Amino acid sequence: MSVSEDPRPRGQILCVDDDEAGRYLLGRALELAGFSVTTAGGVREGLEVLRRGRFNLVISDYRMPDGTGTWMLKQAAAAGLLEGTEVLIFTGSTHVEDAAGLKIVSKKNGTDYIVAQVLKLLGPPGPREDPRGRHPPPTAPRERAMARIELVLYTAGRAPASLRALRQMKSLLGQYESAQVDFQVIDLAEGRPSSADEDHILLTPTLVQRSPLPRTWVVGDLEDTTLVADLLDHSGVERRE
After folding, report:
1. Rounded to whole angstroms, how far apart are CA atoms 176 and 123?
2. Which residues sit opposite 8 in a β-bridge?
3. Cis peptide before 205 (omega within 30 of 0)
4. Helices and strands: H and E segment counts in the chain
5. CB 89: neighbour CB atoms within 10 A?
6. Nearest of 53, 195, 42, 37 to residue 111 by alpha carbon
């Protein structure tokens, strides 16, 4: 008896969530863990994506404006779109309907916990391949994407401390290879995204190292950037020559 190989590359994940910020943060965390992530902003879009391709895992929010993740997964299963595919529902709801046989993860546990559950389901992702199915050639050490750090600076408009922290970060990051640093600024004066709650932001300015784990917080105007420099160096980010 011959056994055919699964044509899907390992580590292909579809993430369905109507919350744009939450979708980005989870997708980014999964990518940093080595997975290849496709996103969809709702039930209908998720079904369309599933009709076009196959995934190793579909991870979906439960309650969305155009339906529930459980309904979407049942429709996809009935259409034969989930053969050999793991499924996971993440939710902030205390009650989930039609969830028999589905794995449920609470949003309250945070993104790191969800990524840990994905790793338990799929195991470490295999090496990525290019669209033509060939493994990419080894990259030189200076080009490796894994030597990166994700930093988020939470500020409060034009508050003096926030402006100082932003200036200090720009000055410090100018000394490092920019391609190896994912740096974002989130101004809480323009609204509080879900990421601020996930990062437990109580004061501004606050700098959060979201990856690599463990998550690290630096509170204050960053007048002394020694700790941030240590985080960059420890994460393998190279200094500019």
Report:
1. 33
2. none
3. yes
4. 7, 11
5. 22
6. 195
DSSP letter for 182, please. E
Closest CA to 107 of 185, 212, 23, 217: 23
Tell me which residue of 241, 231, 33, 31 sits closest to 149, measured CA to CA.
231
pTM (2 d.p.): 0.53
In DSSP terms, 89 is beta-bridged to 60, 104
Kindly tell me if the per-residue pLDDT of 7 is higher than 70.
no
Question: What is the rounded CA–CA span in Å between residue 229 and residue 175?
Answer: 10
CA dist 147 and 131 (Å) reads: 24
Q: Please give the Cα distance from 109 to 114 (Å, whole number).
A: 7
Tokens of 89: 């529902």
158-187 average pLDDT score: 93
Distance, in Å, from the CA atom of 231 to the CA atom of 62, rounded to the nearest integer, reads 36
Strand partners, 13: 37, 57
Kindly report the average pLDDT of the chain as a whole number.
82
CB-based contacts of 31: which residues, under 8 Å, 6+ apart? 37
> Residue 22: which H helix or E strand, with range?
helix 20-32
Domains of the chain: 12-122 (3.40.50.2300), 145-234 (3.40.30.10)
- Residue 31's Cα: distance from chain center in Å? 6
Provide DSSP, 42-109. SHHHHHHHHHH---SEEEEESEETTEEHHHHHHHHHHTT--TT-EEEEEES-S--SS-TT-EEEEGGG
d(CA 224, CA 66): 48
